[in-house]
Amino acid sequence: MKINIKNIITNMLSKKSTDLFIAESKSTELKKSLNIFDLLILGISAVVGTGIFTIIGSAIVGSSDGAGAGTAIIISMLIAALASLFSALAYSEIAAMIPVAGSAYTFTYAAMGEFMAWMVGWILMLEYAIGNITVATAWTGYFVQLLKGFKNILPSFIVSFPLWLRNDFRSMYSLCNKYGWDVHDKMPFINLPCGIEIPIAINLPAIFIVLVLTILLIKGVKESTRVAGLMVFVNLSIIISFVVVGSKYVAPSNWIPFAPNGFEGILAGTFIIFFAYIGFDAISTAAEETKNPQRDLPIAILGTLTICTILYISVALVLTGIIPLNNIDTQAPLAHAMRVIGKNWYAGCISVGALCALTSVLLVYQLGTTRIIYAIARDNFLPQSIMKVHKTFKTPHIITWLSGLIVIIGSLFMDLNISAELCNYGTFASFVIICVEVLILRKTEPNRHRPFKVPFCPLFPILGIILCSCFMFYKGISGGTSSLYFLLWIIIGLAIYIIYGYKNKRLKQ
Fold first, then answer.
1. Looking at residue 243, what is its pLDDT?
2. CA angle 461, 465, 468 (to 5 degrees)
3. Which of 149, 186, 234, 254 qualifies as a cystine partner to 356, CB 3.0-4.6 A?
4. Residue 157: how many CB atoms within 10 A of its CB?
């Protein structure tokens, strides 16, 4: 059979019209129930999570070489917020113009064609699904810490269940090295060819919370946002009270020196704290379930970024003002700060807030995963059978179960740090692409109605491309296995498109 290369390239570059996307969204079976308040809850739920409870400590203190930002973390936050702002403006323009499910995947299909749309969708699945695995593993850690606070009430086997039952590889290896134990006697392994061993850890807390949230998402997105709203209320109450209570103990002398490691420390802090802004783009994945997307999506995206930046800076100033930089704990900085000033009772409250924050992040990330897969399946790159909508709840229940199972399986063996870095690679890539798409659509569809426009275009999108690309390059040259895993993910996505996606797309046309 003769292969027509020209025809294949033409198909790969073929675009889907904006009008067709909008028409499909109007005939969707998904229930339109979200308002601007719901979208803000989703955005804040996704962003205010591990960043403000854990990552902020690492960004201030730095790694083992001490190259942290210090009090100048507020400068790092402003730089990270600025880089996020350019992408947020781009998301706002295109989401209001094309208010359909799928986020950057859908936008790419309209601007750059079929092949790039699939690859962006594949990258987004990395961002949300792997990000969810990261948060689920972190959720387990906070849950265990919370249980320890009830050690005098709960049975000992509940408070201190084995490390391999909560996917704590690092603690298990550390204990075995410390006491000379054989790690194979303490936890099970899968033996693969070529002598490769993969440790297995039955992450019971993560499995439990993912199953609960999966069932909740099947019940309905409106019900899910109500639960997320409750979590956000508890979370924000604790964060605001930390700022209010802690401000009374601030000593301005702790802010000196302001930038102990100079610009290098500020840059390192920016790279770390940027991860705390990941998630606001999840708002656009719910566009098809929003009552007034043209008005509400831009307000929710930019509002989320503004609110979270103010919270981050306020917490950073209080945290660095309460205790000297060399005494800041990188694991639980806020709780440790409260203990230093004698507020032990409040340290426990912070653990509850962290758990609520991570729960809401899990909820929004899983929502984003399902809506992206739904959009991809609707375009025939994946089997359409998986996008079946529940007759009663009007939600894509099959995809929701699949995404939940992916997170559960991944939480059994994935390393927390590597999965976090993989998530970040996906985020940087999607931020760059969304800025590129604004420039493309401004040229190809100049007369299209845009309820919101990126100001100072093309300057702002170009700055977004440069900043996010620099972050990816900075991480790439710093080494590590995550960059290789990201490349492997891209290769797998390319293989799926070649073997299945391209052919199935043609068969369904």
1. 92
2. 130
3. 234
4. 8
Q: Would you state the pLDDT for residue 65? A: 47
Torsion, Cα 279 369 54 468, to 10 degrees, reads: -50
- Helix, strand or coil for residue 128? helix
Q: Would you state the pLDDT for residue 74?
A: 93
Q: Dig out the tokens for 353 from the structure.
A: 């807030």
Q: Which amino acid is at 373?
A: I
- Residue 192 is given by DSSP the state P
Phi, psi of 385 (to 5 degrees): -65, -25
* pLDDT for 1: 47
Q: Which of 209, 219, 56 is nearest to 135 (CA)?
A: 209
Other Cβ atoms less than 10 A from the Cβ of 225: the count is 27
Q: Tokens 């007369």, residue?
A: 447
Intervals of the chain under pLDDT 50 = 1, 64-65
Torsion from C-alpha of 384, 388, 389, 392, nearest 10 degrees? 170
Distance CA 367, CA 385 (A): 19
Q: What is the pLDDT of residue 160?
A: 62
The gap from C-alpha 259 to its chain's centroid, in whole angstroms, comes to 29
Element (H, E) at 197: strand 197-199
What is d(CA 506, CA 478) in angstroms, rounded to the nearest whole number?
A: 42
Q: Which residue blocks in 103-155 are alpha helix, DSSP H?
A: 104-111, 114-125, 131-148
Residue 318: per-residue pLDDT: 93
d(CA 33, CA 220): 9
What is the rounded distance in angstroms from the CA atom of residue 276 to the CA atom of residue 81? 10
SS3 of residue 198 by DSSP:
strand
> What domains appear along the chain, each with residue ranges and CATH number?
21-167+202-507 (1.20.1740.10)
3-state SS assignment for residue 290: strand
Using the structure block, give the residue that is written with the tokens 């420390």.
265
Q: In this structure, what are the phi and psi dihedrals at residue 28, rounded to the nearest 5 degrees?
A: -65, 155
Q: How far is CA 311 from the centre of its chain?
A: 18
pLDDT number for residue 313: 93
Task: State the amino acid at position 420 in one-letter form.
Answer: A
Classified as helix, coil or strand, 189 is strand
Residues in Cβ contact with 262 at an 8 Å cutoff, skipping those fewer than 6 apart: none
In the numeric block, the tokens 């409106």 are attached to 222
Q: In sequence order, which residues have a C-beta less than 8 Å from that of residue 218 and are 6 or more positions away?
A: 390, 393, 395, 397, 400, 401
- Element of type H or E holding 335: helix 333-340
Q: How many CA atoms lie within 13 A of 131 on its CB side?
A: 34
* CA 299 – CA 120 distance, rounded (Å): 25
The helices-and-strands tally (H runs, E runs) of the chain is 23, 2
Measure the CA–CA gap between 101 and 61, rounded to whole angstroms: 40
